[in-house]
Design goal:
The protein is of the alpha+beta class and 405 residues long. It has helices spanning 14-18, 21-29, 47-54, 82-89, 99-108, 113-136, 142-147, 149-159, 169-177, 186-212, 218-229, 234-265, 267-275, 280-290, 322-325, 360-377, and strands at residues 34-36, 41-44, 59-60, 139-141, 296-301, 305-307, 310-312, 317-321, 382-383, 402-404. Helix content is 50%, strand content 8%.
Length: 405
Amino acid sequence: MAVPEDLAFDPWDPAFLADPYPAYAELRARGRVHYFEPTNQWLVPHHADVSALLRDRRLGRTYLHRFTHEEFGRTPPPPEHEPFHTLNDHGMLDLEPPDHTRIRRLVSKAFTPRTVERLKPYVERLAGELVDGLVEAGGGDLLRDVAEPLPVAVIAEMLGIPEADRGPLRPWSADICGMYELNPSQEAAAKAVRASVEFSDYLRELIAERRKEPGDDLISGLIAAHDEDDRLTEQEMISTCVLLLNAGHEATVNATVNGWWALFRNPDQLAALRADHSLIPSAVEELMRYDTPLQLFERWVLDEIEIDGTVIPRGAEIAMLFGSANHDPAVFADPARLDLTRRDNPHISFSAGIHYCIGAPLARIELAASMGALLKKAPNLTLTEDPKRKPNFVIRGLEGLVVEA
């Protein structure tokens, strides 16, 4: 079934980007799978289907472990995009077993519950300092002053990137992530390629330094594993570091500002949260569900599948609509309502299956820390102007969020 022409699903339309959820409701009502010609993808809007497909091994983040581009009926990427694809295709997010299993097992040692819990005091202290700065200034841009610096500093600290070198990390990440949008422009591709080259060159130098002088950081740990029994190539090391930096803060940054924008638009819920800080854990989950920072996640069809009588052939691409799944009334009571006390909340904002977000526990700590610090130190935080939405669909965020503290 193709997306009906009268349906307001248009991921390039500012009105849709401002509020895609009514279009998702129409999409769910009209069926379980829809072919979307502009991106040559099959859209899947229901929670049950998205959840099942994330665990279905007939789908994959890549197909190159089984097929060439030609065998899969796909055109190879342009040669000028090669630096981006080399970087992207060697990270565990875009790998399948056995390579995915090998890299994830290694990286997961840095994200054990004990390791992440040990980071909590550092995260809370840093969140407090950032909010102190916002309050002393009488306000500012919540995105620039709190939401961005916190997760970037945390993941850079874990990796062992010196403080003086952290300035370009966010711009590099934003440019690389531009390639994850639907049908990226030539300009976006050129930016992603340039950032991929610069980021990779920087990490190659840092890895060389850590080889000479290892530290107590993740890069040194990856080098040790690489040098001991060749479990990681240098390219896999570089791609893993970039993935951790990009994924380690993009979702957290956008979840923070999307969340506070939602709270300002729902003053009764904000008042309840200010009155009872014990709601923070459930508030984090509900805000991740309510305005999902990653709206769409793609998979290649490696072996033919069928959804509700529609056969989707090998070589096709599935686009799982996380934002729609998180508003599915079959799973969430009154999904359009923000309810910070929601207990039954199986949102899929962190994905599922073997590609479940390895940094989810750390993201939850960061989101709770910044929320707690803002509630405690800026109890009268107010919005001074309506924010502008970024012109992106897949990674959903704001240009900024200007507040008075």
